[in-house]
Amino acid sequence: MSLSKTFVVGLMLAATASYASAAKNPAPVVSSGWVELTAPTTIALSGSATGFTYTPTAATVFVYDSGNPAGGQGTDKIETLVESLFSLPSTGTGSLKLTGFDDLSNGKSGSFNVTSSSSFDYLAVHYGGGELVFHWNTPVAANSLFTFTGLPNGISNYRAFSTISAVPEPSTYGMLLGGLALMGVVARRRARK
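Above: the chain's sequence. Below: its structure in token form.
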């Protein structure tokens, strides 16, 4: 079989395996009760007379104001929840990476530093009675101050996430160079014959 036919067959097998993997792992379904808001500065919450305000202002906020969302508060559960709300892949480019988390002191108003290892663009905040999930189009710097007022119940924790970009790993470059070297060897051998 010629080199070009081998390459095409290998490419088709890789595409088939990738498609089969995606079909086995469908995205989880988010339960009803979530409300999506675009660039809100004040959010009406049950039990809050003044409304919830916060900074920095996010591009999108999902609000669940009906108790604890299904699935629990584990970091992996919250990551899956955020991926579901924003239709993000669970692995690979565009998926989420946890950059910071903390348990907080149960305040209805105040501020906290989002302690994270790098910038973040998604923040899930849990308060007694609901969940708020924020998304910024431009990543927020690590250790930024998040200020809030008007929660009906105390805030209990947060999880900060960033999206994984399409930067190749060093092994990818090694495979590329190895493949190019192999093609050079094959071309050289053909030229001798």
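The beta strands are 34-38, 42-43, 52-55, 60-64, 96-103, 110-114, 120-127, 130-140, 144-149, 155-163.
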